[in-house]
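Amino Acid Chain and Its Fold in Token Form
===========================================
Structure side: the spatial fold of the chain, written down as a series of whole-number tokens.
Position: the record begins directly beneath this header, with no further notes in between.
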Amino acid sequence: MYAHLLAHIAFGAALLYMLYRSRGLPGGGDRAWLYLRLSLVFFLLWNFDAFTVHLLERHLSLNTYYYSSALEAEIPGPVNWKHLLYYITRFDHLFCVPAMYFLWQSLREFTRGKHVFG
């Protein structure tokens, strides 16, 4: 688990570095670069969210959810702020899906035209 958390930290640092470097590139106002920066922001949000979930999993019991059926899940009481935060942060696809969409859009724009690469 520690290696996995360190990988999240390294990935977050790489994303921050790429965001910093992409600001000063010539042609940085193109839609392709805008989509790439949006992708980096959403991947950074997803990475922070996943890191938070991993930390919360270390502090919560393994019985955080009670599955009454295949489509329903309940949080057994008593519910505290850690359980609610864990439940909310488990929706990491709300950051990951837009990140992949904007990455796809940026790659599509890069293949369509001439762009300046620093």
In short: The mean pLDDT is 82. Residues 31-59 form the longest helix (29 residues). Residues 49 and 89 are 6 Å apart (CA to CA).
